[in-house]
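Protein record
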Amino acid sequence: MPSQCDDYGSLSRLDTKELLPSMSLIGTEVDNLYIDGNLDVQELYKYGNEQYPVKTEMTPLAYKTFVDHALKMPELEDLQNQIYNFNVELKGEGSKAWAFSNKLKKLYVKKKQALTVSVSYRNTLPDTCLNLRVMLVCSSPQDIHRPVCRCQHDISKDTVQLEYLKDHVVRCLNPEATYIGQTGGVAFKDRLAMMIQLQGVGDQVTPVSLEFWCQNSCPTIERRATSLVFTLENEHGAILGRNSINVKICSCPKRDMDKEEGKGVVGGKRKHDAHNNSITTDDQPPRKLTRQSSQSCIRPARSVATTNQHDIPVPSTSAITPFDCVKKETPYVPISRSSSTISNTAVENDNTAIPVNLRLPDIATAVEVVEYAFKHISADMVRCANEEKRNRLATFLAHCRRMKSKYSQFL
């Protein structure tokens, strides 16, 4: 009995803390395990050998870690975070340089015109560095993998001294902006983008001025839908918030916005009634389209005619619409200098130019041929060191652009 009492006494004096499983505690969270100076054993056993969790109130969680998204495609879905309250808004009510469609939620902006957006955020930790990334991407799911960069034609006319700026379609006028990425980058971390360091603690609003140096109609974008993606990131690259704006870079923002909203073309050569989208047989079609219909559809070009024109019945022009002309009357579209209604004095007076008459299956193929010619000539123009030859090639580029615009209206 006396020996058993001695054993009980030694056990009661034993420090039981050494018998607990080993675990790592983080910072000030160790204080939460003690109640009145004593270790809360039940709280420890609940986690065992696992790391004790840090409360979200102390360190705001990011939506994605750097490893998660850096090697993947960019995402367009907006991410709202109440802790950082990140938001991007257009500043102003529109101008000749840009227009915003509330119906389509889409921005239309002119090339080489400044556009200011208002970026608001909340920085809760004084020692945390926040960055804003601005990136232009293709917004369609089937095109999201395509990099967005400038075309060779616009690069050849760019006079900027810094070579790395010539590949960026979007540029920032803020002096603290830095440019990252590469032309063929596909992953998020490799895309062409701008990084702007955000200053201040608490609720902040920063204006960001942007310029666009290529249009959606350029050969590198090829009229694909595009979006501006703004991401708020910490110093480790973790995404804290995301906003995206659908954008189209064009020569006439107001006209393109009205056209896509279904209001017709305003301010241009052709004006349509917004309340009457159909053309009846009693209505006279636009005079310009009538002349084109009579030349390219009713009367084939002499250089490509294969039948006796006296055997071809000529329908009345009052009953022909532009769509009937394309779909019914002309299965083949001749692309030639003699049959085209598009004239270029410099090209036609060039004695060394070679005219080619082609008979193609449809208008889409014709547009592709013109696009290929445009790319080939622009590449030769970039490599050319002779100023006189460059000016000569520039006239052919302008002619190809007008031909593409002329035939694209029927697609």
The longest strand covers residues 239-250. The chain is about 25% helix and 20% strand. The chain has a mean pLDDT of 74. The CA atoms of residues 263 and 274 lie 5 Å apart.
